[in-house]
Amino acid sequence: MDGGHGWLRRGAVSVAVLLGLGALAIAGQTPVSSVAVDTPLGDRPVTARFANIAAASAGTAAVLSIENLKGRSTQPVRINVFVDKPEADRRTPATDPHWAGVIQLMPRQGEVHSLGTLVDLAGFMNPGSGRPIAITLVPVVGTDSSPQGLELTLGRMSIRYEPQ
Q1: Mind listing the pLDDT tens digit for each residue in 105-134?
Q2: CA angle (141, 3, 17) in 5-degree steps
Q3: Helix (H) or strand (E) holding 10
Q4: Could you report how far apart the first and last alpha carbons of the chain are, in Å?
Q5: What percentage of the chain reaches a pLDDT higher than 70?
């Protein structure tokens, strides 16, 4: 669900996200962009658009913050993250210049739960430019297969700045 703001677009594909720093780094931080809440992710890519990105302070780096990712999966899944490439799909390589990182999910007894993940966006953003940024999340199994039976919800996604 995108709260009626039109930030999400289904059917796009993306490739990478870096493993996060965990919930301690995420708790209490203020987003500098619009926020996507309760975003569903299944076997197809999802694109979230972030607008109204505030200017960065000196000594900070932009990150995509994904909090409270949970759901079901019958197999290990990686989620590739792309910046400004809504057409990315499971065949888009990690060598694509829009690739930002990867999130690796290892279900336990079919359940997935991650308190928090951060993806480094430093090379992709012009903070304070007023230009929206599209983040595409692409679920992949193996080399380039779609996951079967994947049912995830990303509790909250936003862009924020972390101290360097």
Answers
A1: 999 999 998 888 889 887 887 655 667 889
A2: 30
A3: strand 8-10
A4: 32
A5: 78
Place of tokens 């962009």: 33
Q: Hey, where are the domains in the chain?
A: 8-163
- The rounded distance, in Å, linking the Cα atoms of 40 and 20 is 19
Of 150, 87, 148, 154, the C-alpha closest to 119 is 154
Which tokens is 154 given? 């990303």
Q: State the CATH architecture for 8-163.
A: Sandwich (2.60)
CB atoms within 10 A of CB 22: 13
Structure tokens at 34: 């619009």
Q: Which of 3, 17, 76, 71 is nearest to 41 (CA)?
A: 71
Helix, strand or coil, per DSSP, at residue 78: strand
Confidence check: pLDDT of 91 > 50: yes
Residue that wins the pLDDT comparison between 89 and 20: 89
The residues near 31 (Cβ < 8 Å, ≥ 6 apart) are 65, 158, 159, 160
Cα–Cα–Cα angle for 123, 159, 1, rounded to 5 degrees: 130
